[in-house]
């Protein structure tokens, strides 16, 4: 940076013939004074160090600093000249004419502030980069996590065909192939949705709340995981109030429900039952995914929501997982200012509950003007 920004033009001026005592008194009150005669001719700059070094010949030796530095010099060059000249102040000129003073402490303050600003900028950009990397990692985790369940179903169907093709009759073989095709089609649609979502949010996971029908979203998710449930002969029931809507991000709600229902299937024994239901409570909708599976130990209820705990427990059919499902759920529910928790049922099984902001008429009338839509 050029020193033109730091030139001080409010300097004190003294006439070289005003007397040594007058000059001394003025100099003691200021870091430096400019020496000019009655005609405005610049002679030099006197500093407090001159007072100590040349107390008797102060007037005669008033040309302490004779060289003018150019206003276009850089801060670094000016500080270097000050260090070599062992002075804290230099006169500045333009086209050989004196125009003002520049002080070392002001240049140092600028450099210090600039370095702090630069460090803060680096920290902000580093944090932004870390967030971007974290977001991309999370997206890949979501895509991988949500695709594992349907592929397990497809592998199950193909395994049955491989092992029992020669002994299965045509009707049963056709049923298995139909199941494989339906699951493959659902998986392809799910993959397209996830990749589109990832492309649209390449740097950050956008939060776009709309008016959502939880019942419809839940039915869509159940259709995606029903084959995995049928392989264990698990019944899934879903019932919701038809006139209750959530004000939420539809993609995030799908991910939340898909993770919770897949977990319920994973930890429920064959011939089990899963229920999904919701009810309005104050300003929120409380949604429950309940199963009659193996349950969760009391001391384990909170650790599954922590990002540093990625240990996955095998399911009742030895299904594998990434350990990220509930972590992802909590992050998305936090974005909605909601809560998620686990309750053990009085009988066998577990209920995972979470809350989402409720949609109200007054919100709708306000938000319609902003181009929000109702998802039914």
CATH topology category name of the largest domain: Heat Shock Protein 90
- Please state the overall shape, judged from the principal axes of the Cα atoms: rod-shaped
Radius of gyration equals: 38 Å
* Number of structurally distinct domains: 2
Describe the 3D structure.
This protein has 376 residues and is α/β, with parallel strands linked by helices. The chain has two domains: 3-108, CBS-domain (Roll), CATH 3.10.580; 208-376, 2-Layer Sandwich (Heat Shock Protein 90). The protein is 46% helix and 19% strand. It is built from nine helices and 14 strands. The strands form four sheets. It has a five-stranded mixed sheet. Strands 1-2-3 form a three-stranded mixed sheet. Strands 4-5-6 form a three-stranded mixed sheet. A hairpin with a 2-residue loop joins strand 5 and strand 6. The longest helix is centred in the middle third of the chain and has 61 residues, at 104-164. Mean pLDDT is 77; it is low at 362-376.
């Amino acid at each position: 940076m050029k020193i033109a920004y730091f030139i001080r033009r409010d300097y004190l001026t003294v006439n070289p013939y005003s007397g040594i005592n007058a000059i001394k008194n003025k100099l003691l009150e200021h870091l430096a004074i400019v020496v000019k005669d009655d005609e405005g001719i610049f002679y030099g700059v006197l500093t407090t160090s001159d007072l100590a070094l040349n107390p008797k010949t102060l007037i005669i030796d008033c040309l302490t600093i004779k060289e003018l530095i150019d206003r276009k010099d850089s801060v670094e060059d000016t500080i270097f000249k000050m260090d070599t000249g062992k002075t804290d102040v230099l006169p500045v000129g333009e086209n050989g004419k004196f125009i003002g003073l520049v002080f070392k402490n002001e240049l140092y303050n600028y450099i210090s502030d600039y370095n702090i600003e630069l460090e803060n900028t680096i920290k902000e950009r580093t944090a932004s980069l870390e967030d971007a990397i974290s977001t991309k990692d999370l997206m890949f985790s979501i895509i991988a996590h949500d695709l594992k369940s349907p592929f397990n179903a497809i592998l199950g169907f193909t395994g049955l065909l491989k092992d029992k093709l020669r002994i299965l009759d045509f009707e049963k073989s056709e049923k298995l192939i139909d199941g494989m095709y339906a699951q493959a089609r659902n998986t392809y649609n799910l993959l397209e949705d996830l990749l589109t979502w990832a492309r649209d949010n390449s740097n950050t996971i956008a939060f776009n709340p709309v008016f959502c029908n939880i019942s419809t979203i839940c039915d869509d998710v159940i259709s995606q995981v029903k084959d995995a449930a049928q392989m264990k002969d698990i019944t899934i029931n879903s019932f919701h109030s038809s006139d209750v809507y959530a004000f939420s991000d539809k993609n995030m709600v799908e991910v939340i429900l898909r993770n919770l229902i897949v977990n319920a299937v994973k930890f429920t024994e064959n011939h089990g039952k899963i229920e999904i239901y919701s009810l309005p409570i104050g300003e929120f909708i409380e949604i429950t995914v309940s199963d009659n599976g193996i349950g969760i130990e009391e001391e384990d209820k909170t650790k599954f929501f922590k990002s540093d705990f990625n240990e996955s427990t095998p399911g009742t059919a030895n299904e594998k997982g990434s350990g990220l499902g509930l972590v992802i759920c909590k992050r998305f529910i936090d974005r909605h200012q909601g809560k998620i928790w686990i309750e053990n049922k009085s009988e066998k099984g577990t209920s995972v509950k979470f809350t989402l902001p409720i949609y109200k008429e007054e919100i709708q009338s306000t938000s319609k003007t902003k181009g929000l839509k109702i998802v039914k």
